[in-house]
Design a protein that fits this description.
Number of helices: 5
Number of strands: 0
Largest sheet: none
Radius of gyration: 14 Å
Shape: globular
Helix content: 55-70%
């Protein structure tokens, strides 16, 4: 189970990236917080890189208090939890990220 979860996270979040510079994805530009969520995600990414996982988790939770429908924040939270060995929390956060992403996709008007 743990190996499968790590593989899923690596595939979802980009395997092999050792130095990660946060870039907001083009499909999720609806930061209605005036950039506050984006800033928190950037800080969380830096904390994660430095091995400060608790700090990264705290920043991600702050972002989710501002925007509880931010799928990327949940996916990043999942990665932090997995790196801490908190497999159930990681799975739950990734499920939430996937649900949000799927809801966003279903709302698109493609043509």
């Amino acid at each position: 189970m743990r190996a499968a979860l790590r593989l899923a996270l690596l595939l979802a979040l980009g395997a092999g990236a050792s130095a990660y510079e946060y870039k907001q994805p083009t499909w999720d530009r609806r930061d209605e917080s005036g950039g506050e969520v984006h800033s928190l995600l950037e800080r969380a990414a830096r904390e994660h890189q430095q091995g400060e996982l608790e700090s990264a988790v705290s920043l991600l939770r702050q972002a989710l208090k501002i925007n509880s429908q931010h799928g990327e924040a949940y996916a990043s939270l999942s990665k932090c939890y997995a790196d801490q060995g908190k497999d159930q929390a990681a799975k739950k956060a990734m499920q939430r990220a996937t649900k949000i992403h799927n809801q966003q996709l279903s709302s698109w008007n493609l043509f």
